Structure formats: structure tokens, C-alpha cells
Amino acid sequence: MAGLALFLGQALVYMRQLPSTLDEGNYLYKGFLFVTGVIQPFQPYGVWTNKMPFAFLIPGTAQALFGPGLLTGRLFAIFLGLITLLALWWFVRREAGDWWAAAAVGVIAVNPGVIRMYTQALSEGVVCCLLMTAVAVGVGRGRRLWHLLVASLFFAATILTRENTLPVFGLYLIYLVFEHGWKKTLLAAVPGTVLLVIVHAVYWPLIVTNIWMPWLPKALYSLFPQLPEAQAIWDPTISLTSRLYSFWQGVRYHFVLLFGFIVLLILWPNKTGWRKTSSFRTVIFLTLTTLLMTAAHAWAALWKDYCVFCFALYLNFFSILGVALVAISAPLFRLKLPAICNSLIVLAILITGAGIGFGAHQELDDTLMKLTVPRVRGMQILPGSTELWRLLANKFGYTSEQLSQIIPAAAGLLVAVLFLLLATWLFTRLKKRLPGVSWGTFTLLAFFLLGLILSPTVVFGNPPEPDCGGDVIATTEAAGRHLASLIPPGSTVFWEGGLSPAPLLYLKDIKIFGAQLNDGYSFRRGGNSDELYRFGFWNEELSARWMDEADYLLIVDYGYRQGYDSVIDLNKFEELPITGFIATCRDYSKIHTFKRIR
């Protein structure tokens, strides 16, 4: 239980440091509106329901039961994180033993990047909890029929939280065919399928339009309502270098999943390595699941343009399954490898070392580029010293921006080379004590262990998330209470409140123009205003109309400075006292309040 305590201690600290994001605020606020019946998911002229309904309804239920607020949402997220770790421990303990179960939980408990994710009220944490619980209940040895039925419901719930988990349910049913036969598989498919059908029937047909339309053949489009045509303002163009950076960020933050998968493939057990056929089938199911989900989310993030830098974020949906996979497979690894594998292992370590250095260049560039080195000219060392980047810039003509990426990548490659030399030296010293272990196995596992040890560092699993230098929950609550003191129940509110609608959780019974909750992501240029509003979008015409209808305008300070100061008619509105900072690490995050003059 030490791992759970370590996780909980860090989570309770991080939950007050991390500013709320647009997604988190919407999961909480939309979820609260849905659960309390103010509006419904996919309701025309409601809000943009851009995710599956359970993504909102699950955190919304916690808000309705324990009171709306950011504190409730984050405590509930931490509770789900603890459930996830308990499910991980239970599953690995059953399949591989106590020590491997403790190690699996420990891997999560020492990774600040993952813990921060579990601290926020995001759908990644909800999905991860549902997936790990489903696997713990319904996968592996000794599973009875009722286990399979319950797991089916959990797998279906993950789909109803985020549609990207649909393939996992299908793989689970295929696994059941081989593990339990057709009869039990058909029975197990019933609860999950029924749940999926019921929820889709309730929200038909807009659940198809909003969620599933991109995945349907175009020949079927005419059967469902079509989203209105208009130009989105969020349409980034991302370079190949940035895509590679995003990929290596994912490797850094989810080293156990991605490099652990390489370890698994290289050390894949031979036929005598499997203790029971059930263990083999379990490993195959988890291997195919993590491989398919990683490839699908790499395509969605790295190949497409909508959210290239979400790759590391997307891996949080299922990365814990990778931890479970490595933990239950590790006791079965081959320790004696043919010499032909050595070249592959060296190549994997060198590429990973350079890649991790490149993926950490934004954190390491200031330190590495400013290293002091001797001045050199014509292969001669000159008096004095200079910074490393200036030396290389003068010698090779690279720009400072290019060197900020090249130097960390080269440093990572150098560290990998030094590691290989050190590992070789250690192996020669320990070879007699490890008669059944080959050099390749020793080196590969040593590099993997090094990555685990470095998980709490900025190089691996510890992203430089902003610490707001105070209590984000307290500042959000203070702003919410301030707004509630100014805006009476029943008021119609125009919201341009920035990166998170979390402050709205503290206002009672207000009327909100729901399309505004997604800020610029739901904003469109042109288009039919009525059709846009029907699907949860907005444009300039709707913005002007709603401003005329609103009793109060809530405008974040940076929005006010970027144009709203010239739009608001002070003959119709009076400005009330401004809030404090929603998050002190975000400039201009105060919210202006304007009251209509009657």
C-alpha cells in the first residue's frame, strides 16, 4: 500500500497547483448541467457535445452528489486514480504475484506526469479507470461467467466515455472466444451491447452526427443530420519536426508503455516460457490492445492536424495497460538471446537516447546551450571560453533555434553511448554471477530500469506543468464566489471566460449560451447562425445577438484587451468589480463583469 500512499500524497499537492483546462472545466460544468437536467447531451440549441455522454455524466454525477466545484471534481478524479491502481495491483498480483504487483503500482506512483493526469477531472482518467477495472475483472485466469458479464459492462462504459476505445471491446470478445469458447462469449457480449444500444437509442441520431460521422462511409451520411458548413478558426499547420517532438514527448512520459513494448517483443518468451495457456492468451490480448491503441492514437495525433501535441495526453487512456502487460510478462522473459539481437538492442538504445534528448529539448536547451567550452579556431584552442551554442553556430552556421534541438538530441545520444559502454563493463564483471543471462538481455533491461529510475525527472516522466505559486482551487473558488455575489439566479450570462468554465460551477441557476463553453474551438466563421446554434456552435452574428440579450457579460481579461473593450457598449452596461486571478500563472486571467443598465 506504500505505492497508493505515495500516489495520494503527490496527487493532493498537484491538484492545487495545476490550472484548470478547457476540457476539465467543460467535463465538470456540462456534466453538472446534464445530470441536474438543465440540458441534455446532444440536445438541439444546448451545448456542443463533442465527446461521448459518459465523459460528462460521470464527473457530473459527482458534482451533483457532493456539490459543484473544482475541488469536488479533482477529489473525484483522485478517487478514480486510486481505484485504477487497486485494479492494477489486483490484476498483476493474480497473474504474476505480489512483488510484480507492487512494482507495477510503484511505476505509476513515481511518475509525476501520470499522477498529474489522474489529478485533473479529465476523461483520460475516467477511461483508464474503467479499462483497468474491466481487465482486472474479466481477463486472466479463474474468471467466471459473472466476471465476464461485469467486464462487458465496463468495456461498454469506456466506449460511452470516449469512442476511441471501441476496438478494445472487440478485441476482448475475440479473446473470450479463445479463452472461454463461443457460448460464454455470446453471453458476455450481451450486457455491454445492450448498454451501448440503449444509450445510442436515447441520444439518436445526433450522437451519430457529433461522434461517429467521421468514421462512417460517406454513403451513409444522408441518413443522419449533417453538421452545418462553416469555417473553423482552429486550423493549425504543424511541421514534421513538431510531430517528432510530440512523439518523443509521448515516449518520455510513457516510457514503460512504449519502450516496455520493445523490451517485450525482444525478450518474448519461447514456448517453454509460458506457465499456462491462459497467461499466453492474456499477454496476447494486452499486447494487441496496446499496439492497436498506440497506433490509432499516433495516427490521430501525429498524422492529423487537429491536436498534434496531444499524443502523450492520448496515451493516458490506456498506458496503464502497458504497465500491466510488462509486469505480467516480465517473469516469463527469455534471458538468453541470440547474438543477432544485439545489434537491434544497440540501435533501439541509441535511437531512444537521442529521441528522448530531442523530446526534452524545451526543458534542457537553456542548460545545455549555455555550457561553457574553450574557444576553438582552426583546430587550435584559444584563450578564453564561450557558450557551446555560439561555438557550434560559428563553426557550422546553425541558428540558435536549430541548436536548441540539436544539442539536447546529441547529448541524449552521447548518454546512450556512455550507457552502452558502462553496461558492457558491468556485464563483464557480473557475467559469472549471471550464467543464464546474455549481454543483450542485461543491457536492454538495465536501460529499461534506468528509465524507470529517471521517471520523476524532467528528462523522462516529469513534464514542466505550471505551478501557479498558490492554490488554484482557492483562487477559482474565490472568483466563483465573487461572480455569484454579483449575478443573481435566473440571469442570462454571456460567457467569454477563457480557458476553463470552472468558475461557472459556483453560479446558481444562470442561463448560459452553451456554445460559448468551448470558446474558440466551437466558433465558426460564417455559416447559418440558426443551424450552427442548433449543433452547439457560434459565430460573430450569434455573439452580437447574445450580447444584446444578456443580463451580464463575463469577459476574461485577455479577451477584454484583445477587442471586447471596443465592443462593449458602456451606455448599456456598467462594469462591476473584477475578480482576482483565476490562476496566478496565467496572465490576464481575471474576469470582468458587466451588468446591463435597465
Give Rg in angstroms: 27 Å
Compute the number of strand runs. 9
Overall domain count: 3
Overall, the morphology is globular
Average the pLDDT over all residues and give the rounded result.
87
Give the N-to-C terminal Cα separation. 61 Å
What's the structural blueprint in terms of helices and strands?
Layout: H1 2-14, H2 22-35, H3 54-66, H4 70-96, H5 98-109, H6 112-119, H7 123-138, H8 145-161, H9 166-180, H10 182-202, H11 206-212, E1 231-232, H12 240-253, H13 255-266, H14 277-303, H15 311-315, H16 319-329, H17 340-359, H18 361-369, E2 372-377, E3 380-387, H19 388-396, H20 400-430, H21 439-453, H22 472-486, E4 492-496, E5 511-512, E6 524-525, H23 529-534, H24 540-549, E7 552-556, H25 557-567, E8 573-576, E9 591-596
Parallel strand pairs: 4-5, 4-7
Antiparallel strand pairs: 1-6, 2-3, 7-9, 8-9
Your description of this structure?
With about 600 residues, this protein is an alpha/beta fold. The chain folds into three domains: about 1-215 and about 235-330, no CATH class; about 335-455, no CATH class; about 470-515 and about 550-595, no CATH class. The protein is about 60% helix and about 5% strand. The chain has helices at about 1-15, 20-35, 55-65, 70-95, 100-110, 110-120, 125-140, 145-160, 165-180, 180-200, 205-210, 240-255, 255-265, 275-305, 310-315, 320-330, 340-360, 360-370, 390-395, 400-430, 440-455, 470-485, 530-535, 540-550, 555-565; strands at about 230, 370-375, 380-385, 490-495, 510, 525, 550-555, 575, 590-595. The termini are far apart.
